[in-house]
């Protein structure tokens, strides 16, 4: 009797497995699709799941997010500017290539207070050549970057005939090679022997430019007069650039309100093709996933993730407003010691997109620490950090002021997703 029951149960289990397998085969036959778990890279953005971790402690953050120390120019290049160039050319920033052999020197001149020129140096402080032609100037110095493989440079540039290229080092004839330098003495910098830098196409508004590692073959990737391109970011494989872009009047309107500039996110390939990712404007610089399959930005209290690859790329929005509100209520009470209702208070809308104040909940409790997302850092395939802060430009300050800065984490995971088409033999007509 017992063995008979076991046989019945075993037969039932086999029947269940057969039914499931038959059902899967039926789905594949009907839809031509196969369902299977995927790695995170292959999961479409619309099928990502996430877990929100508020107020990540400093010891859990990558070092580059913990270190707020200002960036220092390379000492050798700084010395060259101080000893050879004088006060007319002020060094702003140096950008070292991934190999650690060369650096771009960004510097201002007496002709401008905001724009800059670019020269190419060795990391030992030896001048190599001027990079920009006389009628092109760089803008947004913090965004100048080498490609991940170190073979290209990237920056935003604008037409400015008032600027001229920096003078090459004073040396009208080749160095005397018969006079060897004394032991321990560095050879004298040699001037650029290249012909005059050829002119490139320039525009009245800021466009995206690229050049090779030697500072040659400079060209614009974008040519849309009237648009301002900013917040540039190389993809990990160097094949695409993520950027924001807005119109001039939109830029000026934001600055007049003391807000960070906001633009519509897009991808730009090295042949100049653009793909608009969203019709909404954001001040948050795009952040690439480490594998380059996706790119993220944020709109107020929501994170948006877009597929960067595939024939039909999509996107998804991850709403964090309720999680951020709950976390801010706890943070205000625990850290800021603020949790009492303030009846009648009407704080300003920090996010700009909500009809209700950013820091005001339904019970009229003002949450001081509840602010929009201002920065994203995708540090690992499964970990995306989001910084919230109150940010404003003040007339007396050249740089924006950040208050109540807090880091949060989104831990991403794949859901079940369609893996791909299932090949099947064509049916014959009967």
Structure commentary:
The chain has 430 residues and is an alpha+beta fold. It has one domain (33-165, 188-422): Methylamine Dehydrogenase, Chain H. Helices cover 16% and strands 32% of the residues. The protein contains five helices and 23 strands. Strands 7, 8, 9, 10 and 11 form a five-stranded antiparallel β-sheet that branches. It has a four-stranded antiparallel β-sheet with strand order 2-22-21-20, with no helix packed on it. A hairpin with a 5-residue loop joins β16 and β17 (294-299). The longest helix is centred in the first third of the chain and has 30 residues, at 2-31. The chain is globular and about 60 Å long. Mean pLDDT is 81; it is low at 6-29, 163-181, 188-195, 340-358 and 417-430.
Helix and strand topology:
Layout: H1 2-31, E1 33-36, E2 48-53, H2 63-66, H3 75-85, E3 89-96, E4 102-109, E5 117-122, E6 127-130, E7 136-139, E8 145-146, E9 152-159, E10 207-212, E11 219-220, E12 227-234, E13 240-247, H4 248-256, E14 264-269, E15 274-276, E16 287-288, E17 294-299, E18 302-307, E19 315-319, H5 321-336, E20 373-380, E21 383-392, E22 401-414, E23 417-421
Antiparallel strand pairs: 1-23, 2-22, 3-4, 4-5, 5-6, 7-9, 8-9, 9-10, 10-11, 12-13, 13-14, 14-15, 16-17, 17-18, 18-19, 20-21, 21-22
CATH topology heading: Methylamine Dehydrogenase, Chain H
Number of helices: 5
Query: Percent helix among the residues?
Result: 10-25%
First-to-last CA distance? 52 Å
Number of domains: 1
């Amino acid at each position: 009797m017992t063995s008979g029951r076991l046989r019945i149960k075993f037969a039932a289990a086999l029947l269940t497995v057969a039914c499931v397998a038959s059902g899967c085969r039926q789905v594949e036959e009907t839809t031509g699709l196969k369902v299977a778990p995927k790695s995170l890279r292959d999961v479409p953005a619309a099928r990502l799941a996430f877990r929100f971790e508020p107020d990540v402690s400093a010891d859990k953050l990558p070092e580059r997010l913990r270190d707020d120390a200002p960036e220092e120019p390379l000492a050798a290049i700084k010395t060259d500017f101080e000893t050879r160039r004088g006060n007319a050319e002020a060094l702003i920033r140096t950008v070292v290539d991934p190999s650690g052999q060369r650096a771009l020197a960004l510097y201002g001149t007496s002709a401008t207070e905001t724009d800059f020129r670019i020269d190419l140096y060795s990391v030992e402080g030896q001048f190599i050549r001027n990079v920009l032609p006389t009628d092109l100037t760089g803008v947004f110095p913090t965004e100048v970057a080498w490609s991940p493989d170190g073979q290209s440079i990237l920056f935003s540039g604008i037409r400015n005939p008032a600027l001229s290229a920096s003078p090459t080092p004073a040396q009208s004839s080749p160095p005397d090679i018969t006079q060897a330098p004394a032991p321990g003495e560095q050879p004298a910098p040699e001037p650029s022997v290249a012909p005059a830098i050829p002119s490139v196409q320039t525009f009245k508004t800021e466009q995206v430019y690229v050049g090779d590692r030697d500072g040659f073959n400079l060209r614009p990737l974008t040519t849309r007069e009237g648009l301002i391109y900013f917040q540039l970011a190389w993809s990990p494989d160097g094949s695409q650039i993520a950027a924001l872009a807005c119109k001039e009047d939109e830029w000026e309107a934001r600055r007049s309100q003391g807000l960070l500039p906001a633009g519509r996110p897009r991808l730009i390939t090295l042949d100049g093709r653009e793909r608009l990712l969203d019709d909404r404007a954001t001040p948050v610089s795009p952040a690439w996933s480490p594998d380059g399959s996706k790119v993220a930005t944020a709109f107020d209290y929501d994170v948006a993730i877009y597929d960067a690859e595939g024939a039909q790329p999509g996107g998804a929005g991850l709403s964090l407003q309720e999680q951020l509100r709950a976390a801010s209520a706890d943070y205000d009470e625990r850290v800021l010691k603020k949790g009492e209702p303030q009846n009648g208070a009407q704080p300003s809308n920090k996010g700009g997109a909500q009809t209700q104040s950013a820091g005001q909940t339904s019970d009229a409790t003002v949450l001081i620490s509840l602010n929009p997302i201002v920065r994203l850092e995708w540090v690992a395939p499964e970990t995306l950090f989001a910084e919230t802060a109150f940010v404003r430009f003040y007339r007396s300050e050249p740089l924006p002021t950040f208050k109540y800065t807090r880091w949060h984490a989104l831990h991403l995971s794949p859901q079940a997703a369609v893996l791909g088409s299932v090949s099947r033999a064509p049916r014959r007509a009967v």
